[in-house]
Amino acid sequence: MSAPSEDPADLDRTDPAAEIAARAEAFRNWGRWGEDDVLGTLNLIDAAKRVEAAALVQDGEVISLAQAFDTNGPQKGWRRRTNPVHTMTDTGTDAERGSQGFPHGIGGADDVIAMPLQCSTQWDGLGHIFDHGNAWNGRRAGDVVTSDGDLVTGIEHAASVIVSRGVLLDVGRHLAPDTGELADGYAITVADLEATIAAQGASSRVGRGDIVLVRTGQYARTRRDGWGDYAGGPAPGLSLTTAGWLHRTEIAAIATDTWGFEVRPNEFDAPAFQPLHQVVIPNMGLTIGEMWNLDALADACAARGRWDFLLSAAPLPITGAVGSPINPVAIL
């Protein structure tokens, strides 16, 4: 059977179910790392890959790739996703007034935060998306994620794993050199990814165990114009037809500067919701990052003419979580 087409013009836009199913079957990794696997494509990061990545550090410059975690974030309440609420439980005012009950003049400050785990820069865990009731590696969704959390593939399993060679593909800069920003609704194709790699040069090669960061420029636009519909609205992003590229390159993970990773609206005339998620998370076992701030990194890479770096992006080891906030850092 021939592989699904990588040309968006070939998509049957009236039949998302068939297009999703074809790619889920073609690119499924169930059993590849054993029936007990909990990491999916993160298994492709090995010690040799981390040594290779560490050798990329030349200047020692560290760039945070996180958006802010505060009440001025993009969330608007969809599916109870809110922005972080940060509350001080002890303050300098309390210390000045001596109301904290500590001896010999010592005082302190404490705080607490309440937030959904996917409200700002984050990883989607393997228990985040299901396909027809199936979770990663062919397990039943209800056996994996219950009211007690993800009992099998919780994000805590990745806590010491996600350190590797990062590669930035600045598709926004390549395709829209005047602005560096792709239009909302633009579907990034395999041809676009490969053209960006060719334009950026050898340091943009993508291969086994790499973590690919795709900059569309949408986050830069929101910083200038306001959040608008950044959370859940139209956005540039990867086409469903990139699923084969994501599979054959053997990348370990991928992240974008958008809310939802893939192009929105999705590429169908019939009702559809995040079809690329449905293919790559439960079937391919691919870890996806969203809402990353890639602008400073893009400028630094362009100035150096070098697009790969050491990337550390550990999730918080929140037991049973299906996603995690992160502060990923690129070290150049």
TrEMBL record:
Q: Name one Pfam family in it.
A: Cyclase
Q: Which GO terms describe its biological process?
A: L-tryptophan catabolic process to kynurenine
InterPro entries attached here?
KFase/CYL (IPR007325), KFase_sf (IPR037175)
The family database entries (SUPFAM superfamilies) matched by this protein are listed as: Putative cyclase
What terms describe the molecular function in GO for this protein? arylformamidase activity
PANTHER family membership: CYCLASE, PTHR34861
Q: What is this protein called?
A: Putative cyclase
